[in-house]
Design a protein that fits this description.
The complex is a heterodimer. By secondary structure, chain A is of the alpha/beta class. Chain A is built from 18 helices and 8 strands. Chain A starts with 16 loop residues before the first helix and ends with a helix. The chains are: A alpha/beta, B alpha/beta.
């Protein structure tokens, strides 16, 4: 008798060389901010605003760091637990967003240490903010998170950028798009005035134009990589994406990010051309919904090794925007309007699909229906996050609707982005093992229903 | 002909079966009592003894359950969900929905004609949603676990529990005893509370007939009756609802390695 009950060996799950190099960008952001602090330049703590606020802040000369990215960084390097415990002891509930708890714990330490990052802080730590750039997009908790951080940085103001997020049918009301874009542009003008007043300098609109153009260029290339990923076998997997996402989501205006994506594209294209799969023996192609357990990314490597499961595409909102048709830019010269278009189109890009499948909210659900077809998927791995309400209230509905309408089954693995105490890897692995049978069953169901893949 | 052992090493009970050519030869059950190794040795001894075999006669071992890693012989670990599905289907081939009430969790599994998992839902790790709460309240009421079903069936006015947490549920049971509620009514109220949680999962999954109930909870006739009423279904119970996981482990390991 042979034994299979050996201890699970951990692997990063990354298969691309470029993915292994991508942490450079996370470190670069942290390093640049610490450098700016030394030089007396302004630093902003920013949420992901889908480029709505970041590009303008950078054009006016601020260095940005992202507590969300830092949360993932801390979790992946084993540095989050300390921050979570401090957040708990400050009286914040353990059910708050894991990213928020991590940053609160870190902020308390920074404030207690006279705003010098503590020794051994992951990546050297986040430098002291001059301002906070918040966003209500995607998640209600984000409205309050940075306000709470002000407890530790009383002189740093919070600016929240806002985005209209219409329902599926409402989006198609006549004039809705124009009104939405006007709302954003008006709002951005106020934001520019806020930054100019705070930093005592004027926004250079030529510089903003350059930044916006570079951003579109980088995002277009990142999208080309997404298209390459439709190949069977999949040339890269989720563990690769979560690394290469950093430059296009956080630093798209950086020419280095564009150069990096050229390398990613070449590496992925080479695999596609030669029919090389990211994992050997790909048997099941999965979509992944929501953010991953950053502390346990090796889990996905184990799924690949043991069951031939490849995560072929992930949560839509972290991917580059679909290309905006050229004609939409006709007559648009104001870079603020281009910024508005970028974010607005990103959040409404799958509304046609949402209408086709009659799903709401379209922005959180519809992309999976398109992905299922484009990427020929066998299943959805849904990861509702203990501390993330938006992830929780749409995921089960998405899972059930995919099963009903496209006969794509889903499996739910509970966990958290930061808090490893709520992720039971053994139980998750057992569920995935059983899910193999479920995917086999639905393959037959799709055949019977005449669904193409 | 190969002899195959199937083991299901659970947190409350350890179960073993021996199969030959997909025929069940023998089975054994022992309490795990916090010592998995001792429970495994005990349950193996029982099953091997009944089949008049020695461990050296065995060709393959398939296993599932929380304590499987303590098995002192070479074995193949298999998902609990798949084992329950396959083993229950072996005993009752017409079943399409399986409700398993175990000590650690409750599961709803949709089963294909071949006994494979079409879909599944597992309760949160929560004592109030699993068979564990039955043990907790049995202790409070000083009632033998195996008598709870009979007592529940005699209830005339089940008490209403207001909490979804096992710790508070235990406290509430103590309060109801102090208020003079009968054991029968407390147990029936407990069955209703447990049923409400599992029924919510079952409705999410959808109940395709035939429906079956397994695990320790299936031994409780009162719980089975209340659950069937709440779900509006006749719930089948296998002759031995505790060994379905072990049977599934033996069958799956045979398919994979036999």
């Amino acid at each position: 008798m042979k034994t299979e009950n050996k201890k699970i060996k951990k692997k990063s799950g990354k298969t691309l060389q470029t993915a292994r190099e991508a942490s450079y960008f996370a470190k670069k952001m942290l390093k640049n901010a610490l450098q700016a602090q030394e030089e007396g330049r302004p630093i902003g703590w920013s949420m992901v605003t889908w480029w709505q606020g970041e590009l303008i802040a950078r054009a006016i000369g601020a260095e940005l760091v992202f507590p969300e990215n830092y949360g993932a960084f801390c979790a992946a390097t084993g540095g989050a637990e300390k921050h979570l415990e401090i957040s708990d002891s400050e009286g914040y509930p353990a059910t708050l967003c894991g990213y928020a708890r991590n940053s609160i714990g870190y902020a308390k330490l920074l404030s207690d240490n006279n705003f010098v990052p503590y020794e051994g802080a992951p990546g050297g730590g986040l430098a002291k903010p001059k301002f906070f750039l918040a966003s209500g997009t995607a998640c209600d908790a984000r409205y309050k998170w940075f306000q709470a951080l002000k407890r530790y940085f009383t002189e740093a103001p919070v600016w929240t950028v806002d985005l209209p997020m219409p329902g599926t049918k409402e989006f198609f009301y006549k004039g809705n798009k124009e009104l939405g874009l006007k709302y954003i542009v008006d709002h951005l003008k106020d934001y520019v005035a806020f930054l100019e007043n705070l930093l005592g300098t004027k926004l250079d609109y030529d510089r903003l134009n350059e930044i916006v153009d570079q951003t579109f260029k980088t995002l277009a290339l990142a999208h080309e990589v997404d298209i390459l990923r439709r190949a069977v076998p999949s040339p890269m997997v989720g563990s690769d994406f979560w690394s290469i996402m950093i430059p296009h989501l956080y630093l798209p205006e950086d020419p280095e990010a564009y150069e990096f994506y050229k390398k990613v594209y070449a590496e992925v294209k080479q695999r596609v051309d030669n029919k090389i799969g990211a994992i050997p023996n790909e048997k099941y192609r999965l979509m992944f919904a929501e953010l991953p357990p950053w502390h346990s990314l090796g889990f996905f490597g184990e799924l690949a090794e043991k069951f031939g499961m490849a995560i072929v595409i992930e949560s839509w909102n972290y991917h580059a925007i679909l290309p905006i048709p050229e004609e939409e830019f006709e007559g648009v010269t104001d870079p603020l309007e281009k910024v508005a278009m970028l974010t607005y189109y990103k959040w409404t890009e799958y509304n046609k699909v949402a209408l086709e499948y009659n799903v709401d909210p379209g922005f959180f659900m519809a992309a999976y229906f398109q992905f299922a077809k484009d990427y020929k998927t066998d299943g959805l791995l849904a990861h509702p996050l203990m501390s993330c309400r938006p992830a929780t209230y749409t995921l089960l509905h998405t899972k059930n609707t995919l099963e009903n309408k496209l006969k794509i089954p889903g499996v739910v693995i509970d966990g958290d982005i930061i808090d490893l105490r709520v992720f039971n890897e053994k139980e998750a692995f057992s569920k995935m093992e059983a899910f193999v049978e479920t995917m086999d069953h639905y393959r037959e169901e799709r055949k019977k229903a005449g669904i193409a893949w | 002909m190969s002899f195959i052992i199937g083991l299901d090493i659970g947190s409350a009970l350890s179960k073993a079966v021996i199969m030959q050519d997909k025929t069940l030869l023998s089975s054994g059950i022992s309490p795990s009592e916090g010592n998995f190794l001792s429970a495994i040795n005990s349950v193996l001894q029982k099953a091997l003894g009944k089949a008049k075999l020695a461990i050296s006669d065995i060709d393959l071992i398939g296993a599932c359950g929380l304590g499987a890693s303590f098995i002192p012989h070479s074995f193949h670990k298999i998902s609990d969900i798949s084992c329950q599905s396959r083993g229950t289907s072996y005993l009752l081939p017409t079943i399409r929905t399986l409700i398993e009430i175990g000590n650690q969790s409750s599961r709803i599994i949709q089963v294909t004609e071949q006994g494979k998992v079409a879909d599944s839902l597992v309760s949160d790790k929560c004592a109030a949603g699993s068979g564990r709460i039955l043990q907790i309240v049995a202790k409070v009421l000083k009632v033998d676990l195996k008598d709870m079903g009979q007592l529940s069936l005699k209830s005339t006015q089940p008490v209403k529990f207001t909490t979804g947490c096992a710790v508070f549920l235990e406290t509430e049971a103590i309060s109801r005893v102090a208020e003079g509620a009968s054991r029968e009514n407390i147990i029936a109220g407990l069955h209703q509370a447990l049923t409400a949680r599992i029924a919510a999962m079952a409705h999410r999954m959808g109940l395709k007939e035939d429906c079956v109930i397994t695990g320790g909870g299936a031994k409780d006739r009162g719980l089975v009756k209340i659950m069937g009423e709440k779900m509006g279904k006749t719930l089948l119970v296998p002759d031995n609802p505790l060994i379905t996981g072990a049977i599934g482990a033996a069958l799956i390991v045979t398919e994979k390695k036999g």
